């Protein structure tokens, strides 16, 4: 199968997944017990407030008609209006997307090269003191929850040593890179541990494979054998793990933004859930779903391109 045909099939599947998530999000809101407007209006609902919520959520229309209208507005980034402020949901998304995108992109940009470097070093020194040390550190870091690691880093490097800003309060996240150092460390710690172990295992298996032995018999240099033939095969499962890490990253960003008080999409989501601002929650769910599907699609394409490597020395 060619890369183009595989990409078309995966893109079609991704579109179906996005539609399924969008449908699920909408009808989960519909499944709220009783009258959603009354539930959202609070313990002592005001009739005017209830009427305002019903108008904003179009509860006077049939559910299928409201779903069709909401679905038609998504391509135009029309997610409806906030029940709390009356502002378009898209304004909340655009206001919080900057810090979140910076955090996520920096995490993904740093994640793969650092993980590959650690995994390759451990594989090339299999059984050595370096390999055992990297394994021990990986297991230890992977067992620490994000919020616990964040609190420790803030206490040590932000408060006691005062080397880095402990939070983003009063800081411009996009203009002050030092604010992002501790959040990036928290977001990178666990994924680097898991992906580097995958790279190590894949590299060890690849170096012991028949096609690598055949390459060596042909007189190909050891450096080329390791990095041109063995490494690409070790990277395929790691790239797929990066996609799965992206799913985790969406949740990790919410925790990190809450702990470090970073005004991103995670903070918007926490505030919206606390205020029961369902249109904003729905919009964020759609954004997270599309992001997850897109990153998984990209990772599958990269893994598909990397996987067939055994024939290069035949």
Automatic annotation (TrEMBL):
Residues 97-299 form the ABC transmembrane type-1 domain. It comes from the Bacteria. The keyword Metal-binding does not apply. It is found in: Cell membrane. GO terms for biological process: transmembrane transport. Keywords: Cell membrane, Membrane, Transmembrane, Transmembrane helix, Transport. Gene3D superfamilies: MetI-like (1.10.3720.10). The chain crosses the membrane at residues 92-124, 144-163, 175-193, 248-268, 280-299. One of its GO terms (cellular component) is plasma membrane. InterPro entries: BPD_transp_1_N, MetI-like, MetI-like_sf. Its main location: membrane. It is a multi-pass membrane protein. Pfam families: BPD_transp_1 (PF00528), BPD_transp_1_N (PF19300). Belongs to the binding-protein-dependent transport system permease family. This is Peptide/nickel transport system permease protein. It comes from Lentzea flaviverrucosa.
């Amino acid at each position: 199968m060619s890369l183009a045909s595989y990409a078309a099939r995966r893109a079609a599947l991704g579109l179906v997944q996005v539609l399924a998530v969008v449908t699920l999000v909408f009808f989960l809101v519909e499944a709220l017990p009783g009258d959603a407007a009354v539930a959202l209006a609070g313990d002592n609902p005001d009739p005017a407030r209830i009427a305002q919520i019903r108008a904003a959520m179009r509860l006077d229309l049939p559910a299928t008609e409201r779903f069709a209208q909401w679905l038609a507005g998504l391509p135009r980034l029309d997610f409806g209006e906030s029940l709390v402020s009356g502002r378009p949901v898209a304004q909340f998304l655009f206001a919080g997307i900057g810090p979140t995108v910076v955090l996520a992109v920096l995490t993904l940009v740093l994640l793969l090269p650092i993980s590959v470097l650690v995994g390759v070093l451990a594989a090339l020194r299999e059984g050595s003191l370096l390999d055992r040390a990297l394994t021990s550190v990986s297991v230890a870091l992977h067992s620490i929850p994000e919020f616990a690691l964040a609190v420790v880093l803030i206490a040590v490097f932000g408060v006691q040593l005062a080397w880095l800003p402990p939070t983003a309060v009063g800081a411009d996240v996009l203009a002050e890179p030092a604010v992002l150092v501790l959040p990036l460390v928290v977001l990178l710690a666990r994924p680097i541990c898991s992906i580097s172990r995958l790279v190590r295992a894949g590299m060890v298996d690849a170096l012991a494979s028949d096609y690598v032995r055949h390459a060596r018999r042909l007189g190909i240099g050891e450096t080329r054998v390791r990095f041109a033939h063995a490494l690409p095969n070790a990277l395929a499962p790691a790239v797929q793990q990066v996609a799965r890490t992206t799913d985790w990253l969406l949740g990790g960003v919410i925790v990190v933004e809450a702990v470090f008080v970073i005004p991103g999409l995670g903070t918007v989501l926490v505030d919206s859930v606390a205020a029961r601002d369902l249109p904003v929650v729905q919009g964020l769910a759609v954004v997270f779903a599309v992001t997850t599907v897109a990153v998984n699609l990209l990772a599958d394409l990269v893994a598909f391109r990397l996987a067939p490597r055994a024939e290069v020395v035949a």
